[in-house]
């Protein structure tokens, strides 16, 4: 899979899960201690987070990394 396509897929999954849990981007950012602009870029597939960051995002959303990446 192309890098950009996988970044978009990750972002779409993050947003879907976040909204299902009734969390705002701000809520997620506060849990992770990251800037909202960064989180917006990740959700829009414009930034590729590190594996460590993906693990933190999964933990903050209460899902496995596998669910986030599928």
The chain-level structural class is: mainly alpha
Q: Helix share of residues?
A: over 70%
CATH architecture classification: Orthogonal Bundle
Mean pLDDT: 93
Given as residue ranges, the uncertain stretches (5+ residues, pLDDT < 50) are none
Helical segment tally? Answer: 5
CATH C-level class is: Mainly Alpha
Gap from first CA to last CA: 12 Å
CATH superfamily: lambda repressor-like DNA-binding domains
The ordered string of helix (H) and strand (E) elements is HHHHH
**Global shape:** globular
CATH topology: 434 Repressor (Amino-terminal Domain)
Main beta-sheet annotation: none
Q: What is the β-strand count?
A: 0
Overall tally of structural domains: 1
Please identify the oligomeric state. Answer: single chain
Strand content: under 5%
Rg for CA atoms: 11 Å
Give an overview in words:
This protein is mainly α and 70 residues long. The protein has a single domain, classed as Orthogonal Bundle (434 Repressor (Amino-terminal Domain)). It is built from five helices and no strands.
